[in-house]
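User: As part of a screening pipeline, I want to sanity-check one entry by hand. Below is the sequence and the SMILES for zinc ion. Please return the complex as structure tokens so I can compare it with the automated output.
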Amino acid sequence: MASNTRGGGSTPFRSATCHATATVHHVPYTYRCETCAVTAPRRTTAPDAKADRREHRAAAHYGLAPDGDAVLETPGWVSTVLRAAAGGIAEYARKTAQKPRPREAPPEHWRQAVLLLAVGAGAILLLGMLVRAVTGT
Ligand SMILES: [Zn+2]
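Assistant: Here is the complex for your manual check:
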């Protein structure tokens, strides 16, 4: 514990940077351009992948940002699954947006419920009249 604050031989600044980058090492960063269907080599840090993006945009897109280019922070298969899921959700949203539910005509079961309610109310009224006639009040 005490040796950590003293540095233990190496400079504390260097050990701090090693520790900071060690947590990032597990997640590779790759720059992907869907428009050109190209993927840059994996980078260990996000700034490296963003440098790839900057270079590709400058070289292939005149410095502009193409649609669907991104710095991916996850391994290949995970991002593929996520992209497929996102595509599926987008597809579902588009389908539901294209088919708005008809609201002007009430559905069949709703009409039946109203009919049942009317019949029930009539039966209760009739029963009440009957009871009154029998009891003589
Ligand atoms: Zn491109």
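Points to compare against the pipeline: The pocket of zinc ion is lined by residues 33, 35-36, 56, 60-61, 66 (CB under 6 Å). Residues 108-135 form the longest helix (28 residues).
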